[in-house]
């Protein structure tokens, strides 16, 4: 597949949006903001908006409304225009003074017909018409207060966040997780009058919940638009139960059938269930610097695949209170050619080579700015890289010219100096020991070896594993073990580990966001969930997690987790979840 084609697909979509945003307030949901972030950058959007003020706002019920001098709004949304999304639209518009509203949705009109239960035969007759969008346009005018005002609703396929020329993510579907064996019982319970399914291999689209089926159709809509942009006729292959359903839905998707009749080129599309490599996800066998950066630095709020880089080192601020005034840096540098070249090198190089690339780029940038750089050979250290970065500190012009490069340099330094990076090798050594132990003994013995490492916070040292790290190790143990026979020894070992974990959770002075999800102690309000169809942190297919109990929770359920690739941050794992069957 052409890298240029994938990048131009995203850029072409955003160009359609940018053509609508002049002098407008722009509301974006998190998934579209991430696509913008990697695709063309918020600076490009602000330039298209024009005006001295910042006109970008998060799409949420509590979003700031438009004032009397702000008559135009553009809403850029990744989801269906249905349910809570429409309620939020109405809420914002009714509190504002808009006279012109544009709503952009990344979901095709055909999917909206499906969401509104329009039969396939009736939908085929509506080809070329968009009654759902037209009805919403009337509602927008009604909410603005006059049917003479202007409203537009259009579809733009903002599916991808292109991290590099050959790597694109789909942030709106970060929480889409494959079905698990125990989900079959839940599916059977909802179809009492039909034949019971015995395994995941028997599950098809007719057995899925309407919510999950709609989410799959939204993904299929975006993929079909991508294939249309590339001018290809796709041949789909699938590995895994949910992947098989998605591939079949793409093959049977009506707009895709029409497109394939005229496509001249071919492309192979391979779908793979994310559950098939949990070991690689939680393991520390990788030797890639980007993997470590994303694993240890704090996540950029609202994003699934970018981090916050502390930029205070390049300022003159000394007061800690003032340090919070400095916006964090990030990894996405869409408008900086040199930084993009370094980013691609980091993605494709081993750790040692990547660190040397950072040094080379910093040295070349300092030389171009005639900064007094002192060359040193040999092993690259965080202190050495920091000394090069500090050369730019008091040179505003040089800072502006190489801002993207400096952000990547600081991300590297902060990762190399982070305590979690030092623990990486400890994890690797223990994982190798686990591999050897599991090959020579039973899993009950391995769990008993892990038991002494489960310590409450007041007994842990810097070398001990935290609660989150213990969960990752448990996922690793069960993932590499595969099928095994349950016996009395295993039951006793699991019970001991389970009780020790519960005790540790109870004695934590403050639960991390991850442990709040695991134990079900998140705040009752759902501002960080995606059950409302606008914002994205947890997907509409995620269930509320139940607190661990020494009576009703079996440790093998640790294998039932939400854990994407490490690129989606291993720290987002949600053990004990049934992610795809929320009612």
Write the layout of secondary structure elements.
Elements (H helix, E strand, L loop, with lengths): L2 H16 L6 E4 L1 H10 L2 H8 L6 E3 L13 E6 L6 H11 L5 E6 L3 H7 L4 H6 L5 H14 L5 E6 L5 E4 L2 E3 L13 H7 L20 H21 L1 E8 L1 H12 L1 H9 L2 E8 L5 H5 L6 H8 L23 H4 L13 H12 L2 H18 L13 H9 L5 H6 L1 H14 L2 H22 L2 H8 L16 H15 L6 H20 L5 H7 L41 E2 L11 E2 L8
Parallel strand pairs: 1-2, 1-3, 3-4, 4-5, 8-9
Antiparallel strand pairs: 6-7, 10-11
Helix pairs in contact: 5-9, 9-10, 13-19, 15-16, 15-19, 16-17, 16-19, 17-19, 20-22, 21-23
The CATH architecture category of the largest domain equals 3-Layer(aba) Sandwich
Instruction: Could you tell me the CATH topology label of the largest domain.
Output: Rossmann fold
Rg calc? 26 Å
Overall morphology: globular
- Gap from first CA to last CA: 38 Å
The helical percent reads: 40-55%
Q: Would you tell me the overall average pLDDT?
A: 82
Widest beta sheet: strand line-up: 2-1-3-4-5
Overall structural class, as computed from helix and strand content, comes to alpha/beta
CATH class of the largest domain: Alpha Beta
Largest sheet: 5 strands, parallel
Strand content: 5-15%
Note the total helix count.
Answer: 24
What low-confidence regions span 5 or more consecutive residues with pLDDT below 50? Answer: 524-583
InterPro entries: Sec1-like (IPR001619)
Protein name: Sec1 family domain-containing protein 2 isoform X2
Region (Disordered): 519-540
């Amino acid at each position: 597949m052409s890298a240029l084609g994938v990048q131009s697909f995203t850029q072409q979509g955003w160009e359609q949006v940018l053509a609508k945003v002049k002098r407008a307030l722009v509301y974006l949901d998190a998934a579209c903001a991430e696509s913008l972030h990697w695709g063309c950058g918020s600076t490009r959007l602000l330039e298209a908006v024009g005006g001295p003020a910042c006109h970008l706002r998060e799409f949420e019920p509590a979003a700031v409304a438009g004032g009397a001098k702000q008559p135009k709004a553009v809403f850029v949304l990744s989801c269906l225009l249905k349910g809570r999304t429409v309620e939020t639209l109405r809420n914002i518009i009714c509190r504002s003074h808009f006279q012109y509203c544009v709503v952009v949705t990344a979901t095709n009109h055909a999917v909206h017909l499906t969401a509104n239960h329009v039969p396939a035969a009736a939908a085929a007759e509506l080809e070329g018409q968009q009654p759902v969008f037209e009805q919403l346009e009337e509602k927008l005018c009604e909410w603005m207060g006059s049917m003479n005002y202007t409203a537009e609703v259009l579809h733009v396929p903002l599916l991808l966040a292109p991290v590099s020329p050959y790597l694109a993510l789909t942030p709106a579907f970060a929480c889409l997780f494959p079905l698990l064996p125990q989900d079959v019982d839940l599916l059977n319970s909802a179809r009492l009058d039909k034949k019971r399914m015995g395994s995941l291999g028997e599950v098809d689209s007719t057995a899925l919940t309407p919510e999950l089926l709609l989410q799959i159709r939204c993904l299929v809509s975006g993929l079909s638009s991508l294939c249309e942009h590339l001018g290809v006729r796709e041949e789909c292959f699938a590995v895994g139960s949910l992947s098989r359903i998605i591939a079949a839905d793409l093959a049977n998707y009506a707009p895709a059938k029409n497109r394939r009749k005229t496509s001249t080129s071919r492309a192979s599309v391979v779908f793979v269930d994310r559950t098939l490599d949990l070991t690689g996800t939680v393991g520390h066998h990788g030797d890639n610097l980007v993997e470590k950066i994303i694993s240890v630095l704090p996540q950029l709020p609202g994003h699934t695949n970018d981090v916050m880089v502390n930029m205070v080192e390049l300022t003159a601020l000394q007061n800690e209170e003032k340090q919070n005034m400095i916006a964090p840096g990030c990894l996405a540098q869409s408008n900086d050619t040199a930084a993009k070249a370094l980013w691609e090198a980091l993605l494709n190089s081993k750790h040692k080579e990547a660190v040397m690339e950072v040094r080379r780029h910093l040295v070349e940038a300092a030389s171009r700015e005639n900064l007094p750089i002192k060359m040193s050979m040999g092993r690259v250290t965080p202190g050495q890289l920091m000394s090069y970065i500090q050369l730019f500190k008091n040179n505003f012009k040089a800072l502006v010219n190489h801002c993207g490069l400096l952000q990547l340099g600081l991300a590297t330094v902060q990762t190399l100096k982070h305590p979690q990076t030092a623990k990486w090798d400890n994890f690797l050594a223990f994982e190798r020991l686990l591999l050897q132990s599991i090959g020579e003994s039973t899993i009950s013995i391995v769990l008993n070896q892990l038991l002494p490492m489960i310590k409450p916070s007041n007994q842990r040292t810097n070398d001990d594993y935290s609660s989150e790290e213990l969960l990752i190790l448990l996922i690793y143990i069960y993932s590499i073990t595969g099928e095994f026979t349950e016996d009395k020894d295993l039951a006793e070992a699991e019970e001991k580990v389970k009780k020790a974990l519960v005790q540790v959770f109870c004695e934590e002075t403050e639960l991390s966001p991850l442990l709040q999800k695991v134990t079900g102690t998140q705040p009752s309000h759902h501002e960080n969930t995606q059950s409302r169809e606008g914002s994205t942190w947890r997907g509409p297919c995620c269930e509320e997690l139940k607190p661990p109990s020494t009576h009703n929770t079996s440790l093998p359920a640790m294998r039932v987790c939400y854990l994407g690739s490490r690129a989606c941050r291993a720290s987002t794992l949600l053990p004990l979840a049934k992610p795809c069957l929320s009612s």
